[in-house]
Amino acid sequence: MVLRRDNALMLDKNIIVVTAVAGMILILLLITLIILRIRRNRPLPMDELEGHDFEYYCADLLKEHGFSEVEVTRGSGDFGADILAEKDGISYAIQCKCYDKPIGVKAVQEIYAGKDYYDCMVGAVMTNQYFTAPAVELAKKLKIMLWDRGYIDNM
Q1: What pLDDT is recorded for position 5?
Q2: Which of 40, 49, 133, 152 could crosslink 53 through cysteines, CB 3.0-4.6 Å?
Q3: Sign of the C-alpha dihedral, residues 66, 93, 72, 99?
Q4: DSSP letters along 39-76, please?
């Protein structure tokens, strides 16, 4: 009889420990999510830039990260590419979007055309925002790279 009681007490203690650990893990996950949300929504210097200034900002980032032959195309009539660049023998056509809302499929379509127009191997869209689900889906299908706010911030 004493053994059963000791086993029951031991089981109760194990349940308490497991519950406490699970609670701590849940609290840590919630704190992490809150921090990520704050970081994701915090204003960055690039958010204050106008269109062409943002293109030069992106061009400078690319240069700092090993891209060469970085060229900002003319403002209007650029055939869908704002920046042309090269890295490791691979040519890139890049569309830049500095907006205050998520980027949709139009930017992906534009760079898809620009990549072919400029005979580049890779097309990419750089933005100070994030992409809509349809834009991500289209980019996967067309093999267009998406460099969002988090990616640029890490650069």
Answers
A1: 61
A2: 49
A3: negative
A4: HHHS--GGGG--HHHHHHHHHHHHHHTT-EEEEEPPSS
What tokens were used for 54? 């943002």
pLDDT, the chain, mean: 84
55 phi and psi, to 5 degrees? -60, -45
**Tokens matching residue 152:** 């640029």
Judged against a pLDDT cut of 90, whether residue 77 lies above it is answered with: no
Decide: helix, strand or coil at residue 75.
coil
* Termini Cα distance of the chain: 66
* 145: Cβ contacts below 8 Å, ≥ 6 apart: 122, 123, 124, 125, 139
- For 51-61, letters b (16+ CB in 10 Å) and e give eeebbebbbeb
**Token duo for residue 120:** 């580049």
Place of tokens 């127009």: 117
Q: Which residues pair with residue 85 across a beta bridge?
A: 92
d(CA 89, CA 27): 47
Q: What average pLDDT does range 41-55 have in this prediction?
A: 71
Name the 3-class secondary structure at 113: helix
